[in-house]
Fold this sequence. Notes:
The chain is an all-alpha fold.
Amino acid sequence: MDPTIVKSLAAAIAIALGSLGPGLGLGMIGSKAMEALGRNPEASGQIFVPLILSLAFTEAIGIYALVVALIIKFV
Length: 75
């Protein structure tokens, strides 16, 4: 089998599996934040900063998966 095909397949698997977790995490974080705001709208100031921080950290995991996939593909 051609090494470029194997590298492309490995990169595709890495980004697919690496983006699955953060995608689910972002959805769960968003839904729980909206649920909390629906129950207590006055707490929006207390919910906003932890929401943004958790979204940023979850997104960073997806970016790490992209970097690993690019390293596999081009190195």
